Amino acid sequence: MFIAQGYKKGNDFWKYIIGSLLVIIASFVGQIPLTIAAFMKAYMDGKSIPTNEKDLYALFDSNLFLFLMLISFVFAIFALYLVVKKIHNQDFKEIVTSRKKMDWKRFFVAFFIWAIISVSLILVSYFSGDSEIVLQFNLIPFLILSVVAMVLIPIQTSTEELVFRGYLMQGFYNLSKNKWFPLLMTSVIFGTMHWFNPEVAEMGPIIMIYYIGTGLFLGILTLMDEGTELALGFHASNNLISALLITADYSVLRTNAIFKDLSKPEVNFEIFVPIIFYVFLLIIFAKIYKWNNWKEKLFGNHVEEEYQEPII
Predict the structure, then answer these.
(1) First-to-final CA distance of the chain
(2) Global pTM?
């Protein structure tokens, strides 16, 4: 069973606290290039040092800023690898999947299903003429963006998924000996991690329903499918579409995307639309992969045999 793969003698919860701190420290180290670049650029332009995200965005070309921002995840995932191997004495694969190896077919099924849905919704909105989505395609900046995004965004999304749906979910399972607590805790922590996103400042705290709901959806995918492949595929698809296809001035990913949303951000019933799609996707994946025993997989308690059985 995937969530029980970290349940081993001596793998106490305090190790997960130390491991998480090391990953966070590595992420901060990975932000040093952005910090140095910001100081140098401000000095050369005769500007004051940026003290907020808005000023930081204004300082750089958006492609350069995206590159410098995402570099920190390279440091973080490398630190996570060392933490799992050296502190927990685990095979790194054990926080990825319960299968013998990564199931790339599952990854791409989730990736393309969500990509088709997302692209269709954006195109329908654009061609309907009722939205404030405009075309801003600029070939050279877009090609540079594509290279940066396709290399670094999968690293960013994989880092987040393996930290939350892999590493921490197993850690909280070791602590609680049940499955609902890890699912809840990782969803809430994942959601609150986005608290400082510019979308929250524009739309208010209620947008956290979306972030925590997304974490819950990804956690359910992981528990029901006994691995992170579907969550990895969905998350990579979601962020790549956000970076390459559509952007907005209030988005955390302000890029040279093909389209730009000029509408004023506001919270209304549309906040629940992604949740409806998440339910739809759970039904689709349940049909494809023949999921059953939902109650046990999402709310069951630990039994000693769970982590002793060979995982295939």
Answers:
(1) 9
(2) 0.93
